[in-house]
Each structure stands twice: as C-alpha cells, then as structure tokens.
Amino acid sequence: MSKNSQEIKTNFKKEATDLVATINTILENFSSKKDHELYEDLWHLRADLEILIVEIQHSLNLENKLQKWQKNFFDELKGTSSKTKAKAKLDEFKEKLADFPDCSSNMLSECYKILWKLKEVIASVLSAFPAEKYKWINGEFQKEDEKVFEI
After folding, report:
1. Burial 30-53 (b: 16+ CB within 10 A, else e)
2. Dist CA 93 CA 27 (whole Å)
3. pLDDT by residue (tens digit) across 37-68?
4. SS3 string of 15-50?
5. Partners of residue 134 on adjacent β-strands
6. What is the pTM of this model?
7. Where would a tag sit more exposed on the chain, N or C end, judged by fewer CB atoms within 10 A?
8. What single-letter DSSP state applies at residue 126?
9. How far is CA 95 from CA 20, 29, 42, 92, 99, in A?
C-alpha cells in the first residue's frame, strides 16, 4: 500500500470516528435540544457523512449506482415524523456503531456500508424535527413564535 493511500485511509478513520462521536453527542443531548436544533445538527451530520461517503466510494472504486445491499436496505427502511420513533431509530443505530470498524484498515468497505446506512437513517427521520414550529391559530397555520393580536 502506498504512503498516500495509507494517509487517505488514516484520514477516513479520523473523519469517520469524529462523525460517530457527533451522532453519539447528538443522542446524549437529545432531550435538552429543541426540534430545530436537532434538525440542524442532524442535517449537518448527514451532509458531512455524504462527503465522506463519496470520498470512500471513490477510494474503493465503486460505481455510482445502487448495489444490491443498498436496495435491500431501502426496501426495509421506514421513515418517521414522530420524534419518539426517530429517537428510537437513531438509538438502535447507535448500538450498531458500538462495533464500528477501523476505517484505515482493510475494513473500509464495511465502514462505507455503515456510514451510508447511518446517512440514510438520518435522512429518513429528519421530518420528525421540523425546522420551524407551526400550530393552528384562528383557522390557519402560523409559526408558533408569531404573535397574533386581535383588534
């Protein structure tokens, strides 16, 4: 393995480890955050995962089309707009991350699969954390923080 290739894999390991730590931090602080904060944290994590996944995909010389395991995962993946169910899905995935492989070793393809699945799980639960809260006021939806004055 060339030195450059080893440096790339070491970089993948550090980035992947940081992203796994980020999801753990998000879940540890879950109950103390507002929906829009969770949405923003998860959205940024998903974006960072997307970038790392593309880099790993390129390093592994994978084609840009869905593989069979990805299609199977999509068939089983169910999104949710329930905050409780979203938390449960993320916690379930956190357990899978406990045995996260070393991305700098020969397990880069396993690392890719786990990170890709995490990205898709996050995408499937984002709607549970609306960026803005709306509620029904005087016969119409309005932002919750907007004041309604009656004359």
Report:
1. eeeeeeeebbebbeebbebbeebb
2. 11
3. 999 999 999 999 999 999 999 888 888 788 89
4. HHHHHHHHHHHHHHCHHHCCHHHHHHHHHHHHHHHH
5. 143
6. 0.80
7. C
8. G
9. 11, 17, 17, 5, 8
